[in-house]
Amino acid sequence: MKLIPHSIHTKKEFSPHEFTTWNIPQIIFINSQLPQEAQRQWRFLFSTLSDGESFSKMMGSILDKGATVMLIKEEGGHVFGAFADESWTVGPKFHGSAKCFTFHVHPRYAVYPTTGFNSNYQYLNVQQQTFPNGLGIGGKVDYFGIWLDSEFGKGFCSPSCTTFDSPQLSKEKEFKIHTLEVWGVGPEPEKEEGLRQGKSILDKNPEAQAILELMNKAPVSDGYRDKKKVYEEDYDDDD
């Protein structure tokens, strides 16, 4: 079994090395930890290397895309991330399932599963005065296991995380993002009928659409989002 990069035709052809910081051993390690249904396909959604440093663009690229793997390389040198089992949605409450986990791939290889202590798996919210604005994974409000501020570029990792059996993932509690990328894993959720007719996936989420407009950030078009790569497992028929 091996992972082979497979490109979807786009207006501009990209080499995987142009927009990803993953290497093959890291992919194999994390892929082996995913639920079986999520292991066969990796779908490129967002990278600061190809899409720039924009929280709204990242949010528009990952909403309603099914399970995802997020990889963060911080300027301190640590490389870490998280698997989110459910589609990202905008709102002031946590969501997700106990299948989520966080991980390190540098300076060590480690996966940190859920503890069962709470269900604070995934959090994504913007334009709020009473709740944090950004993306959070694990922990609790203001003490997230991983926190990416909506003012893109800033992050925070708690020294310990009650949701996941993890230490502090970043070198320092507060960190600056060097590169960040998000991949959809497993099959993409089916779009509603209106979306099949060419509407943006954000059209079915008026709250998210309104938030993006308030931020004066144009949502990413479906045509732009189709600039993707897929990592698929190539299984030998004799296996």
Descriptive account of the structure:
- The chain has 239 residues and is an alpha+beta fold.
- It has one domain (36-225).
- It contains 7 helices and 15 strands.
- Strands 1, 2, 3, 4, 5, 6, 7, 8, 9, 10, 11, 14 and 15 form a 13-stranded antiparallel beta sheet that branches. Strands 12-13 form a two-stranded antiparallel ribbon.
- It is globular.
- Residues 1-16, 193-208 and 210-239 have low confidence and may be disordered.
Q: How is the secondary structure organized here?
A:
Layout: E1 2-7, H1 16-19, H2 24-33, E2 41-47, H3 48-51, H4 55-62, E3 68-74, E4 79-84, E5 91-95, E6 101-106, E7 110-113, E8 122-125, E9 134-140, E10 143-149, E11 154-156, E12 160-161, E13 166-167, E14 174-185, H5 193-196, H6 206-214, H7 222-225, E15 229-234
Antiparallel strand pairs: 1-15, 2-14, 2-15, 3-4, 3-14, 4-6, 5-8, 6-7, 8-9, 9-10, 10-11, 11-14, 12-13
Question: What's the short story on this structure?
Answer:
By secondary structure, the protein is α+β, with helices and mostly antiparallel strands. The protein has helices at 16-19, 24-33, 48-51, 55-62, 193-196, 206-214, 222-225; strands at residues 2-7, 41-47, 68-74, 79-84, 91-95, 101-106, 110-113, 122-125, 134-140, 143-149, 154-156, 160-161, 166-167, 174-185, 229-234.
